[in-house]
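Supplementary Methods, section 5.1.

A reviewer requested that the exact input to the structure prediction be made available. We therefore reproduce it here, unchanged from the version used in the analyses.
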Amino acid sequence: MKSMTGFGNQKLQKKDFSVEVSLRSVNGRFLELRFHLPKEYLSLETELKKILSQKLKRGTIDIFISRRMKNQSHQVEIQVNQALAKKIHLAYRELSQELKIPFQDPWSVLLNHPELVQLQEASEVSSHEKKSVQEVFEAALRSCEKERMREGEAIKKHLLGLVLLLEKEVQKILSLRSEANKHLQEKYEAKIKLRLKDSDIDYQRLSQEIVIQLEKGDINEEIQRLSQHVVNFKVLIKNPQSEGKKLDFYTQELLREVNTIGSKSQISDITQSVIEAKALIEKLREQVQNVE
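The structure derived from this sequence is encoded token-by-token as follows.
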């Protein structure tokens, strides 16, 4: 069992650059990947997504990657707009001739136009750096996976404890079934006799009506389905490939059967067990929301 909550961090120091990768994973219905990359690494996003989707199936994952160059001067390119410089120089010379003013210092004039010279960081990433980024990314992912597994084991232990308590409540309800049916029988006999008190009582018909009403009010089928859902739920928890979506589905089925039992039974002890069972199922559902 794996949780959807985890964190992984890894740093890599090289001679000319350093890279740091952090992965933060939280709950999510589907797999949602949110990359936060420096512009130099944007071309790597597709490959990194492929690597990550092979390991993680569900969750919202934020991926932060930072890049630092150790010798920034080697990563700067100077771009000169020569065509624009020639036009500006020619325009000043023509203006100088027109106004009959000496044009003695063309450099100071040109340098007053910052658009002529631009400094840009080199954006090309070497194959060696790309490989290094992938390696540190995979290391951070393994760290995050380890955390998700550790958290998953804690959730598994908690779920099994809750299921054990739920089984006890189901057994209580089962032990009270006979009392519930006896209560129903007495209730229906009294109601039917009250309606027929001024008439001749057909005891055969009376018995048939009581049996019909008892079958409608009996909680045996619900108890059997509830017990089977609990067994299936426990098997799924212990499965190394347990899926959060399936566990969530079973919590819905568990709650449905318990609600039906609660609506049918009027025995106070059963009602108390139903309330306890519903509280336990709600706790189960809260926990499985974090299972991958």
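The CA atoms of residues 117 and 287 lie 60 Å apart. These observations are discussed further in the main text.
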